[in-house]
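#structure-requests
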Amino acid sequence: MRLARIGGSGTAILLVCAIAGAAPVYFGNHKIQREFDTTPAWRTVEISCPLDGWTLTTHSDELKVEILGGPTVQGSDWQLLSVPQQAAKNKERRLTVCLGTDKAPGLQAEITYAVREGEGWLRKAVRLSGPKGLVVSRVDLEPMTLTPAPRNHSGKGMPILIGGRCWFGVEYPASRNRIEAGRLELVHFPGREVGGKGLACKTAVCGVARPGQALAMAFEEYLNTVALPPRHFLHYNSWYDLRGAELTPTRLLETYEGFRKGLMEPYGVELDSVVIDDGWQERRSIWRPRKDIYPQGFGPLARDLEAQGTRLGLWMPLSGFNLDVAWGTRKGYEKSSVGNWYCLGGRRFYSAMRDAAARLIREGNLNYYKHDFNFLSCQAEGHDHLPTSQHGHETNVDRTLELLKYEREIQPGIFLNVTSGMWFSPWWLMYADSI
């Protein structure tokens, strides 16, 4: 074998290059290391912490891909197509392998493992390519059996904690993560064709705790590098106060004046936003303000609030909940098959929702959105997802994340609060300020 040492002595990346495909490959840094075997197929055999020699033995199939109407490719079905390649840029090191299979001719997987100096976690990114018409239904990013078997547990979008020293997860809030009878699964459901541009799967990540470090703290150390910075946001919400026709600019300004005199001035408190909850919308529209209350839109109210030292925020479910969905369906906006709301996997509704989110931010100079009623489910035919609950859900989550990113691009300082219908995946905090 040939040993290559990359980086300084304290943060070296170890890469053992195989001769004749027989030797193991080691990749990591001084805090976390992953060992691979190349026979009979590319697979992870151990995850360890070089600081104290702690190890986790794995019997891995490395990548499991289920093809719609076709075979499942995993483990020894994959063959290395070329020698693993390493690269270094700034403080990040990468190891890339290319896999192919005879079981699904033309299907290829490019797996890139990445680690940064000083970090106790390592990412695994998968990109699939293949012939036109080949649709990937399900991907398991880390199909492996762990020895000794940890206790069973699971959770949608939740980290899997192993033996007090190691954790696994997916940088995506809707992955199906579980450990059962020692078998780890980190699964998502693309339902996408791999031909043309290929398919970027969700990114898996695993980490280890330093000797003496609580595993929850090790995960939090990682989370603090990917989550939005925490911040306080004090606002008034109209829901328990004003409803429907009461939501006039005059009443809202009077309410704010009451807070100013009774709370803000006496105690030096600042109110970040006045948030209008349900009732401001013209129901036969895609989130346009009621003309009988806001004949000139939100601009005049927003300017009056800003003149008094605060800003405007809005309640607005991305599902279109409490809009007139029957009206919208007649107009061609795609309804969810499982409830009286719209499907973000419908191209026409998603486009209208994107336009509405941007229009309202600009019109009201918004600094807050309350995205309520996140149903995120659909099994309808003809939408931009396969007609199953898993694929409809993933597409709706994907589109929600795209909208949250888009809103922040338009208004970088906006506070995004996703509320009912949410589950407590920490990876929501990559996109939203609170859940």
